[in-house]
């Protein structure tokens, strides 16, 4: 079995769970375009027929009869604009009706363009026209350091795709961030998971995803430990900052919440204790005021001994250096044609 690339562990920037959407498709006769960004894996129930045929959990277009050399298209708005490292085109359960080839393009744009405005833009190729198979996850590496806001999936010529996953690193727009009070850990603000001891049941990226966890599977949960150690996760903050408030949410974790937790700030010159060993309750959102101290670049959360957590929020402020870094990451990654001005105060 071939090992998957590391980029599949990065957040899915297109997922509905982080605000992704599908504002336009040229055809969705058999199955709606919005299924492409559903966070849950695709499902299939045989012999489930609607007025237009078998019901599929994906995006499916009609058979082309006139323009057989054309392509069907769907535009996906990234919930988290950012730098794309890889794309997964999943044709799960499409066996006789999948497209023989696909391609993927991207664009970066300010504001909230309409579908017509998006279609008129100049798009950049991420994945050239490439073959795919039915009922298969096909992974495509993307070599780009540009920040994109939308991607376009093309089926050559038609057919069905269950899911489109767009893995990468979020790059927030500093013009809409208040540097004096923000969640320094949030994916939407540029936070990222930088290390984790165990993610047997679910991804630690869930901890810093937008919104509340709907079910236990929306959080981070480790396997049961049978030794004297403990599990931990490490977050690279949006930028160097000072953490004032920690929000530790064990919602939905009732028989498997951690017993205790600690928070440790990481700096170039060492570690600083942010939250000493503190008891947690199951299925509870805990809020702990922290003593403002030195600025930190990363925070490690140790759960004792193991278990699950729904969300981790680290509220605070960016330092001058942290704010400058946030601005530089944005401006340095803008694609051609996207204007960085006017805007912000460093």
Number of domains: 2
What's the CATH architecture name of the largest domain?
Answer: Sandwich
Shape from CA axes? globular
Might you state the CATH topology name of the largest domain? Answer: Jelly Rolls
Percentage beta strand: 35-45%
- On the 0 to 100 scale, the average pLDDT is 93
Order of helices and strands: EEEEEEHEEEEEEEEEEEEEEEH
For the biggest sheet, the summary is: 8 strands, antiparallel
Count helical runs: 2
**CATH top level class name of the largest domain:** Mainly Beta
Q: How many DSSP E strands?
A: 21
Summarize the amount of helix as a percent range.
under 10%
Residue stretches low in confidence (pLDDT < 50, at least 5 long) are none
Q: What is the subunit organization of this protein?
A: single chain
- The CATH superfamily of the largest domain bears the name Galactose-binding domain-like
Question: Separation of termini?
Answer: 49 Å
The helix-and-strand class reads mainly beta
Features:
346 residues; mainly beta; Jelly Rolls; eight-stranded antiparallel β-sheet; 40% strand; globular
What does this 3D model show about the protein?
- The chain is mainly beta.
- It folds into two domains: 7-170, Jelly Rolls (Sandwich); 176-323, Sandwich (Jelly Rolls), CATH 2.60.120.260.
- The chain is built from two helices and 21 strands.
- It has helices spanning 115-119, 320-332; strands spanning 21-25, 49-50, 53-54, 59-60, 72-90, 101-107, 124-131, 137-141, 147-156, 160-161, 163-170, 182-183, 192-196, 220-221, 231-249, 260-267, 270-279, 285-289, 296-304, 308-309, 311-318.
- A hairpin with a 2-residue loop joins β2 (49-50) and β3 (53-54).
- The protein is globular, with a radius of gyration of 22 Å.
- The mean pLDDT is 93.
